[in-house]
């Protein structure tokens, strides 16, 4: 079976007590693979609540455009109310700041996330490929135990 080159170069994440931060690095060849179709990055939250945050990207060469993320229930596809508080920026990489409250996440909840890239209606890449990133929504105890001078 032939495997195409991954268009997601890296998926980085971090967090504080109030927000999850993500950065999705994409390769330039993505635009060739998309062949003019709308490119959308989806952040898939399998836990604590199954949600999909979709971010349509501007066309190749367009940077600093206003991004309009939408939120969907992962299983039913229904759209929960708004993306209040989500910050999204694009300049050769996608950066996101997502409030924990939007994810209905509580301190200590397990967090399972993946990033997917679609060209039109077709998924062309997912990272990590098979098993999502597994982490935990930070609690004050977690933050205090990982604090360093």
Question: How does this model look, in words?
Answer:
The chain has 149 residues and is mostly beta strands. It has one domain: Immunoglobulin-like. 7% of the residues lie in helices and 44% in strands. Strands 3, 4, 5, 8, 9 and 10 form a six-stranded antiparallel sheet that branches. A four-stranded antiparallel sheet has the order 1-2-7-6, with no helix packed on it. A hairpin with a 3-residue loop joins strand 1 (8-15) and strand 2. The protein is globular and about 50 Å long.
* Share of residues in helices: under 10%
Per DSSP, what share of the residues sits in E-state strands of 2 or more residues? 35-45%
CATH architecture term: Sandwich
Number of strands: 10
- The secondary structure category is mainly beta
CATH class: Mainly Beta
List key phrases describing it.
six-stranded antiparallel sheet; four-stranded antiparallel sheet; mainly beta; 149 residues; Immunoglobulin-like
Topology overview:
Layout: E1 8-15, E2 19-26, H1 30-34, E3 39-47, E4 51-56, E5 70-73, E6 87-90, E7 93-99, E8 110-119, E9 122-127, E10 133-136, H2 140-145
Antiparallel strand pairs: 1-2, 2-7, 3-4, 3-8, 4-5, 6-7, 8-9, 8-10
